[in-house]
Design goal:
single chain, 96 residues, mainly alpha, 57% helix, elongated, Seryl-tRNA synthetase, transmembrane
Length: 96
C-alpha cells in the first residue's frame, strides 16, 4: 500500500520553489472598435433624456440594443446552453 502511495504521489511536490515566469503582465487589451462602442454607451447613459421626445428616446433604445448585440457577437466569453449544462452534469454524475 505504501509503495502504491509513493508511486502515484505527484513528483512535482518535491520540486524546489522556483519563480514561475509569467507569460504576460499586461491585461488583455480591448480592441479599438469595442472601446468606441463602450464609449458611446457611456455617452448615452450620461445624457439628459428628460428633454427628448418619444421618437428620439426610441432611437436611442434601438441604438443601445444594437450596440449590445454587437458587443455580444464579438466573441468575448463562452456561452453554454441549458442542454449542454445538463449533459455535462449527467456525464459528471455517471463518471463519478
Amino acid at each position: 500500500m505504501l509503495l502504491l502511495t509513493v508511486t502515484f504521489f505527484p513528483s512535482n511536490s518535491f520540486a524546489i520553489n522556483e519563480k514561475v515566469p509569467t507569460s504576460s503582465t499586461n491585461p488583455k487589451e480591448v480592441p479599438a472598435e469595442v472601446k468606441v462602442l463602450l464609449n458611446r454607451l457611456e455617452e448615452i447613459k450620461k445624457m439628459d433624456k428628460s428633454n427628448l421626445n418619444s421618437s428620439e428616446k426610441k432611437e436611442l433604445r434601438k441604438e443601445v440594443k444594437a450596440i449590445k448585440k454587437t458587443l455580444k457577437s464579438t466573441g468575448n466569453g463562452v456561452y453554454l446552453s441549458i442542454g449542454a449544462i445538463i449533459i455535462i452534469i449527467l456525464l459528471l454524475i455517471l463518471l463519478l
